[in-house]
Amino acid sequence: MIDKTLESVINQINAMGADNYQIGVYNRQIEQMIIFRKKNLDDIIKSTPWLKYKNLLGSDIYIKPDPDEERALVLIDDINKENLISMNNRGVNPACVVETSPKNYQTWVSLGNEPLAGNYIKCIASLLAKEFNGDPACAASSHFGRLAGFTNRKKEHQLNNIYPYVICHEYSGNHAIKHVKIREWAIKEKEKKPKISLGKIFPKNDNKLKKEPSTAFLIYFESWLVNTKRYHNEVDLSRGDFAVACRMIKEGYLREDIIISMSNNSPNIKTRKGKHLLDYVTRTVDSAIKCCCM
Fold first, then answer.
1. Residue 164 neighbours by CB under 8 Å, 6+ apart
2. Domain limits of the chain?
């Protein structure tokens, strides 16, 4: 039988990508946090039964990368689904998304493999919290996030004597598409050099769209086919998918709308990609976002 808590713990920790972590066990009755330092994945797996027990008794379970590693990982707390979609669509795709209570999320944003000092992380956390309506009080390199697989023991979330589970919905572990530009911004900000325009880093998708995504995809794909057939005998439909995705991104369509539209409207896509359809479409759209936003 699969241990769902252990599975959630492993997924989140692997996505966060640090070698060592700090685990916080917060006793709500006495308002005291016990912190366990320098814990790797194996240590945490071994401790999971004890953490379950403490959670059952009323403690909340938290996690953060061990600060000595200077892992370039930024926590954005208390965001809703709309802001989460905006993060993905604007090149700040999280390595990990945790639903801490119904329809309320924390995200861990990875900014590359190179270490990043805490003062830079705090600067970036403040920027991202402001840009995506997160909790500014949690914009610090030292702040804990919740560990998935355990229940949220805050009284306000209790319903019929049941506490909601903290759920790890996404755990790709990928770096944010714009992680290089975000790091550059933080360095210039801290060194008091001329700032990079935030509008260039996080362009908003405010275009008033004239066409529904599915209609737009079909029109743009047909246009691509016409132009391609003028100069080539063979047509690569995958290149067409990428080209249309790029065009839709530049015109302000949302990532999720492009994925759905391509899945339903690209010529012969179900036959071409079979069981790999969703993976193919997601990779194509994410590649297009990276190409258009970098």
1. 101, 102, 151, 152, 157
2. 4-201, 213-293
